[in-house]
Structures are given as structure tokens and as C-alpha cells.
Specification:
By secondary structure, the protein is of the alpha/beta class. Helices cover 42% and strands 14% of the residues. The protein is globular, with a radius of gyration of 21 Å. The structure holds pyridoxal-5'-phosphate. Pyridoxal-5'-phosphate binds next to α5.
Length: 395
């Protein structure tokens, strides 16, 4: 169809975190923003048109949830991942981060332990901490041969045995390194968690953006045990660039966990849909296949472009090639800089706004996360600025 992912969109003044919080977060505004995980591409036209059509109606009153919304979610998961979901196992969630917080409140008490596998998406660390739970780490291992991370399942078994955590939060696929977990590893993780009585949250927000032929495995599909021990979250928000419209959903196959969790959500009216969410989700999941295919192919080319540029022109930085999504994890330890000097290099010398790896917990030190869902010309400019800044370090 020829979508224009090359089009540069000025988001300044729209209230976007990406552009409009630069001063507050980075201390200056003259930066190329490639940080927060939304795309610098237009949201697909069918989604915008469906929203405009609904907004053209004069009344934005309380709105029920049509049965076809749920069917759309079921059809999508079957078609994209071969995942069969029973209607009664799904509910709406007003954002995945909030969903994780709801699970935390429903299934754990202050002081309880929660396992995370750093370096990992910041709210996995911040939510348990902010709610008085204790974090237990099972750090990922960088596998030199594979050029990406793997889970340390031996250590996980030990951590679960000795620390007695109540919950494990899994990023499936993994943010920040874009790892698509092998089904066998997910099944082993499920078996360990079941044995030790640990509930698993599988956050699958990046699942619909696998790259290079990698296959995503929805957690509940990898084994009976996985289906039994888990709460899974998914959403159209990342893939179709609508994260400003809360539109996530949750799947819980285990009836006991479901009764407790959905009972909690319903008692507090936390799972009521919002009309713009259902409209946007249905349009995204039924009318945007071409857009998604072309977006992924553009992102894949961006990944190759950025990795090649860094490998050939920026010594001291190593890019971890993502297997899913549009985030590249940059190992900058080869530059030999301390934390403040690294941030100074990116912000004040290269004039780039990326995510500071330290925020992702242990193992994130000396890393930066770069969002490559941007027009190629923007990436070229960003990489050229970074190359010059790194060269000037050596002089
Ligand atoms: C792994 C992961 N989970 C959740 C979110 C955010 O989800 P939501 O906006 O639905 O709270 C993100 C956003 O970057 C993410 O990467």
C-alpha cells in the first residue's frame, strides 16, 4: 500500500512525552527524541478514521461493550499466535502497568517478594518497590554466541526455593533487549513457578511485533502448567501506535485465579471498557494487517541499518539485535565512561534523548536504549551526531 514511514511528524506541542518533556527529563530541548516506547509514525489511518467517526457523534456518554469487541480479541490471538482463548477468560485492563499493579495488590501483601529478571522494563522494578514489596533478582545472562540474553533458569529455581517469592513478572518478549523467549524456557519457568507456588505475570505487549522470523509463544500456550500459573496481559497499543488510548486486556485460564482477580477488578470497577479503546482496538485488529506488515518491515530495515552503522562506525558501542519490537539495547561499556559521562555524551555532546540503561536495574549499567520506530532520516541524523560525539571523546 506504500505507507509513508519516512514522513517526519512534528509531535511538539501535542503533549507527547516523547517531545514535550525533554526539558524536564534531560535538561534541554534541542535533542533528537528516541526514548519512550511509542512510534514516531502516524497511527494507521483505519484507526484514526474509526475514532473520528465515533467522535463525530454528539454524545460521549457511558457506553457498553459489544460482544464483537471480545470476539475481535479472540480472533486476533488465534490468527496471529494460534492461541485459543475462551471468552470467559478475558477481561479489559486499563493499561498493562496498572494491570500489573492490580495483580500485585490482589495476590501479594506488603513485604512479600517479587521476582524480576533485569535488565528489565522499569515499572517491573518500581511498582513492587513503591508498594512496599521486596524485589528479588534473577538477572538475565548475556549469551555471546546467540548475541542476546537468556534466562538463568537454574538460578531461578534456587531463588524461588530459598526466597519464597509470591510473584514473578515476565516481559514476553523482553523489553529492553527485544528477546523472544524459546517455548522450552517458558515451559521450564512455568514448572519452577508452579512447584514453588509463584504466580506468573506474562506481559506480552510487544508480542505482535516479532522480527526476522522469530515466533512469539503466548505464555499460557507453552504448557498446561503455564496456563495454570499465569495472568497474561496483551494490547494493540504498541503495535498500532495507540498507547495514549488505554486498550489492554488480560487472559486468565485458571478459574481459581480468575475468580479472585476478576472479582477484585469487578468489585472495584477496574475492568470497565472505555469506548475509544474498543473502537481503536477493533479497527487495529481487523483493518490494519497491511500497515502492520509494512511497519514491521520498515522497523526491521531500521534495525539492520542502525546495527550496521554502529558496528562499522561507532567503536565502543555494541548493539543487541532485537528479535521483536522497535527498541535497540546499546552496550556502551566499551567507551569506558562512568554513568554521568555517558549521559553527558549522549545528551550534551550527541544531543540525543535515549533511555538511561541504569533505570532497567542491575545489568543495565553502561547501556542505553534506543527507539528505532522513527523515519530513517531521523536515525541517520541521530547516528551521525553520535558518531561525531564519540570521535571527539578520543581527541
Ligand atoms: C513491557 C512493557 N509493558 C508495559 C508497557 C506499558 O503498558 P501500558 O501503557 O499499557 O501501561 C510497556 C511500554 O513500554 C512495556 O514495554
Amino acid at each position: 500500500m506504500g505507507y509513508s514511514f519516512d514522513k517526519i511528524i512534528d509531535r511538539r506541542g501535542s503533549g507527547a512525552y516523547m517531545t514535550d518533556s525533554l526539558k524536564e527529563r534531560y535538561g534541554r530541548e534541542d535533542l533528537i527524541p528516541l526514548w519512550i516506547a511509542d512510534m514516531n509514525f502516524e497511527t494507521p489511518a483505519p484507526v484514526r478514521e474509526a475514532l473520528e467517526k465515533r467522535l463525530a457523534h454528539q454524545v460521549y456518554g457511558y457506553t457498553g461493550t459489544a460482544e464483537h469487541y471480545w470476539q475481535t480479541l479472540i480472533d486476533w490471538e488465534r490468527r496471529i499466535h494460534g492461541w485459543e482463548i475462551a471468552r470467559e477468560t478475558i477481561t479489559f485492563i486499563p493499561g498493562i502497568v496498572r494491570g500489573i499493579a492490580f495483580v500485585l495488590h490482589c495476590f501479594t501483601d506488603p513485604g512479600d517478594k517479587v521476582v524480576v529478571q533485569p535488565p528489565v522494563y522499569m515499572p517491573f522494578l518500581n511498582l513492587p518497590r513503591a508498594n512496599g514489596r521486596q524485589l528479588v533478582y534473577n538477572p538475565l545472562i548475556f549469551d555471546e554466541t546467540a548475541g542476546t540474553y537468556r534466562m538463568d533458569l537454574e538460578n531461578l529455581a534456587q531463588v524461588c526455593r530459598t526466597e519464597k517469592p509470591r510473584l514473578l513478572i515476565l516481559s514476553n518478549p523482553h523489553n529492553p533487549a527485544g528477546v523472544v523467549w524459546p517455548a522450552e524456557d517458558l515451559a521450564r519457568l512455568a514448572a519452577i513457578c508452579q512447584q514453588e507456588g509463584v504466580l506468573v505475570i506474562s506481559d506480552e505487549i510487544h508480542a505482535d511485533m516479532t522480527l526476522g522470523g522469530h515466533v512469539h509463544h503466548p505464555f499460557p500456550t507453552v504448557s498446561e502448567t503455564a496456563a495454570t500459573v499465569s495472568v497474561t496481559f496483551a494490547a494493540p497499543s504498541k503495535t498500532f501506535n495507540i498507547p495514549g488510548i488505554v486498550s489492554s486486556f488480560c487472559v486468565v485460564p485458571n478459574p481459581e485465579i480468575r475468580l479472585k482477580f476478576y472479582g477484585f477488578l469487578e468489585a472495584n470497577e477496574l475492568n470497565a471498557t472505555m469506548f475509544l479503546s474498543t473502537v481503536a482496538t477493533e479497527a487495529a485488529f481487523t483493518q490494519c494487517d497491511d500497515w502492520r506488515r509494512e511497519m514491521l518491515s520498515y522497523v526491521q530495515e531500521n534495525v539492520e541499518y542502525v546495527c550496521h552503522f554502529i558496528e562499522t562506525r561507532i567503536p565502543g558501542i555494541r548493539a543487541v539485535r532485537p528479535q521483536a519490537s522497535f527498541l535497540i539495547w546499546l552496550d556502551c561499556r566499551g567507551l569506558g565512561l562512568g554513568h554521568d559521562a555517558l549521559i553527558d555524551l549522549f545528551v550534551n555532546q550527541a544531543r540525543l534523548a535515549l533511555n538511561d540503561g541504569e533505570a532497567f536495574g542491575p545489568g543495565g549499567e553502561g547501556h542505553m536504549r534506543m527507539n528505532v520506530a522513527a523515519p530513517r532520516a531521523v536515525l541517520t541524523q541521530a547516528l551521525t551526531q553520535l558518531e561525531a560525539a564519540v570521535k571527539s571523546l578520543k581527541n
